[in-house]
Amino acid sequence: MRRENIRRPEKALSARFVETVTEPGKYFDGQGLFLRVAKNGARQWVQRITIRGKRCELGLGSPPAVSLATARKLALENRGTAILGGDPLAAKRKAREGKTFAAAVDEYLASKLSEFRNEKHRKQWRSTLDNYATPVLGRMLVSEITVQDLLRVLQPIWNDKTETASRLRGRIENVLSWATVAGHREGDNPARWKGNLSEMLPKPAKVKKGHHQPALALSDVAGWWADLQKREGMAAEALKFLTLTAARSGEVRGATWDEFDLGDAATSATSATRRAVWTIPASRMKNGREHRVPLTSAAVDLLDALPRLNTSPYVFFSPRGGMLSDMSISAVMRRMQEAEFKAGRTGYLDPASKRPAVPHGLRSTFRQWAAERGYARDMAEIALAHFIGSEVERAYQRSDILERRRDMMAAWAEFLRGEGTLGDNVVTIGSAKIIGFE
C-alpha cells in the first residue's frame, strides 16, 4: 500500500507556507490538524481526531477560503467537543443534510451583504446569483454540486457575458466556501478557478471583446415575429413579452404579478384603452433605478392569456414554479434558427456578424428601429433603461416620458406585425425625420 508523503515541520505552519506550498504530501500543524496537498495542487485541511474511542479524520475545507487561523479554530473546537463526549463528525453530517444551494445563498448573503458599502454592489450580488445560478443549482444540495454543474451555469454566458460570468463564478465560489466552513459540504471547491475551471473555460482576458450581441435585421423582424407566434410554452411567451417591451431577459424572467398595473379591465372596453404599466423595482434593474414600462395592447393581451400559479409569484414561471432560466428563452430562438436551417434557409442572422440572433440582440434591433424611425435618442435610451446624459442632466431630467414612450412602443408592436409606419408626430428637416421629444 502506497504511503503518502508526510511532512512534519519543526514548528507550526505559517500562513505564507500554506499559501505557497505545492509539493504533494501532508503537512502537520497541531491539534491533529494537517494540510493535505494533492498531486494536482488541490489543498485541503484535515484533522485527525479520536471521537468516542474511534480515530477518524474530519475535513475542514480548503485554503484560501479557509485560512490557517480558521482551520486552527475549527480544529480546537472539534477537539473540545470530542473531549466533552460530543461527536463533531455527526454534528457536521447533520448540518450537511438537506442544505440546498438556494438556502446557502440566503444564509451567506444574510451575513455578508452588510460588509458591502455600495448598495449597487449588494444588489448585483443577489441579482447575478438569482438570475444565472439559482435556476440551475438552486434545488441541488451544496454537497452534491460538481464542476460539471458549474459549467452548466457558466458556459452559456461565458463568451457573450464574460464579465458577468467571471463575477458570477467568484460569487458561487464564495457561497460554496461558506458552505464548506459551515459543514454543509466537503472537498475542493468546484467553482475554484486556478487549476480547475481554468482548464475548461478560456481566460476572461482572452475572450474576444467588443463584439455585439447578434441582432435581428430589421428586414427579418416581421417574419421572425410571425414565426414566434406559432411557438407555444412559457419560455416562448416570455420571449414574446421581452420583444414587445425591449426589456432584458433577467427583468422579464424575474417579473412578478405585483409589479404590474394592468388598468381596469372591467371599465375598459378593450386592452387598447387600458393604460397599463409594468414597474420594475430598482433592486432588479441593472442600473439600480426603478424603471417603468408602458404596456401596449399586445403586451396586455399576452399577460391576460397567461395562466397563473398560486404557488409561484412569477409571471413567467418554470415547470416547477421557479424562475425561468436564461437558457430556456435562448433555446426558443435557437430552435427557431435550427428549423430555418433544416428548411434550407439561412434563418435569422445578424447582418454584420452573420451569427444567429439571440434574445439580448433584440434590444439592439429595437434601438436601430427607433433611430431609423426618427425617434429622439433620449426616448429610445430611456425605453432601454439606459442612463442618459451626465449625472447633472439626469438630476434635472426626472420625467421618464411614459406616455410618449407608450406611443413609441405601440408603433414598435405594429412594426413587429409588419404594419409599422412612421408616426404622425414627425417633423421633416431636410432629409432627417425627428419625432418630437420634450
UniProtKB/TrEMBL annotation:
Biological source species: Sulfitobacter sediminis
Pfam families in the cross-refs: Arm-DNA-bind_3 (PF13356), Phage_int_M (PF22022), Phage_integrase (PF00589)
Keywords linked to the UniProt accession: DNA integration, DNA recombination, DNA-binding
Family listed: Belongs to the 'phage' integrase family.
Name this polypeptide is given: Tyrosine-type recombinase/integrase
KW Metal-binding (keyword) present: no
Domain Tyr recombinase: 211-410
Keyword DNA-binding found: yes
InterPro entries: CB, DNA_brk_join_enz, Integrase-like_cat_sf, Integrase_catalytic, Integrase_DNA-bd_sf, Integrase_DNA_bind_dom, Integrase_recombinase_N, Phage_int_M
Domain Core-binding (CB): 99-180
Superkingdom, natural source: Bacteria
